[in-house]
Amino acid sequence: MRLDLIQTAIREQAMDAWLFYDHHHRDPIAYRVLGLPENAHVTRRWYYLIPAEGEPRKLVHRIEAGRLDELPGSKGVYSSWQELESGLAAMVAPYKRIAMQYSRRNAIMYVSLVDAGTVEVLRGLGKTVVSSADLVSQFEAVLTKEQIASHYEAQAALDTILTEGFWEIGRRVRSLFGEGGRVTEYGMVQWLQEAMRRADLVWENGPNVSVNENSADSHYEPTAESAKEIRDGNFVLIDIWARKNRPGTCYYDITWTGVVGREPSERELQVFEAVKGARDAAVKTVSDAFGNMQPIAGWQADDAARAVITQAGFGEFFTHRTGHNIGNILHGNGANLDNLETHDERLILPNTCFSVEPGIYLDTFGIRSELNMMATPGRAVATGRVQEELVRI
């Protein structure tokens, strides 16, 4: 834990203190930010308060009195609930605006981890509990130089694998290669997984290969039992994500679409152009803001993309946020590009990565165009190849 950096961030946010609280590992963010062992045996409540200035303070149960000993600061102990409440009152007494893993009206559910009862106790003590969301972004989402470099390593590998994957679909369809003469979504998932393993990549579940109406399910997951065949004339979506197989590396996450053995229909072209326009509008909005050194929140980029799709007449078919933060976990704790599922007021910070992935999902097919952006001081750019037309497979 870098106490000096945390206290600087608290002051910059015009807060008096940041209060961490946990019971039975309810708040994994606290363990990561404070550098505590995430597998520690925790059966009693603990509190750790970092003030904007001065020495931190701890409050722990007597039977787990050493739980926070590796952290700096003075320590109070309790056994009874009365001692706990009086100890907590003494701990927070000098402070008014206290940040916690809380989000007003649960707007940012990713950091809304503290229970309502604890917030009630603090409010009963006359304290103003404010969201730690932007503090969490600073310590969870900001990437190191090494992590940024690792993102580009994954990008180079995955861009190549995706290109080869589309080629392999065409080869298999035309040669009737595959299990029992069938080329399936799941068979191509297995092919992509093996290619990623050879490239020394790791990933969460997936990737996803979707045909025709399955591409309209934005979280479709083919299985050996349910997978559809891939045939001439099909519409195909591939969503693929991975990071290099080293601790702390950053993900790369993209989605491309194409058609097998034919030219796209007029409807497919119309939808693709709307999605592409929305993607490019979000990219420009973020890029312009960083180039002009203007702060920008996640919801603003979502609005830029959503306006294009709505104007094209497809607003009701754009059913998810425009993008998500990316880090060592695929969906990170920085700002999402979202004014649909949440009103994400978190700022897009320098040295953070995020996806831009608007989509339109109709009955017979869906199109999503996903790229990643890396924001650095004064600059925000797409990090890999950008799809400009539907792939002809």
Overall description:
This protein has 2 domains: 3-140, Creatine Amidinohydrolase, Chain A, domain 1 (3-Layer(aba) Sandwich), CATH 3.40.350.10; 145-392, Creatine Amidinohydrolase. Helix content is 33%, strand content 20%. The protein has helices at 3-12, 28-34, 81-92, 116-124, 133-140, 145-175, 185-198, 266-291, 298-311, and strands spanning 17-22, 46-51, 57-61, 74-78, 97-100, 128-131, 201-202, 208-211, 235-244, 252-259, 325-326, 352-356, 359-361, 366-368, 371-376, 379-382, 391-392. Strand 5 (97-100), helix 4 and strand 6 form a beta-alpha-beta unit. Helix 6 crosses helix 7 and helix 8 packs antiparallel against helix 9 (298-311). The model has no long low-confidence stretch (mean pLDDT 96).
How is this structure best summarized?
This protein is α+β, with helices and mostly antiparallel strands and 393 residues long. The chain contains nine helices and 17 strands.
Reconstruct the topology from this structure.
Layout: H1 3-12, E1 17-22, H2 28-34, E2 46-51, E3 57-61, E4 74-78, H3 81-92, E5 97-100, H4 116-124, E6 128-131, H5 133-140, H6 145-175, H7 185-198, E7 201-202, E8 208-211, E9 235-244, E10 252-259, H8 266-291, H9 298-311, E11 325-326, E12 352-356, E13 359-361, E14 366-368, E15 371-376, E16 379-382, E17 391-392
Parallel strand pairs: 1-5, 3-4, 5-6, 10-17
Antiparallel strand pairs: 1-2, 2-3, 7-9, 8-9, 9-10, 11-12, 12-15, 13-14, 15-16
Helix pairs in contact: 6-7, 8-9
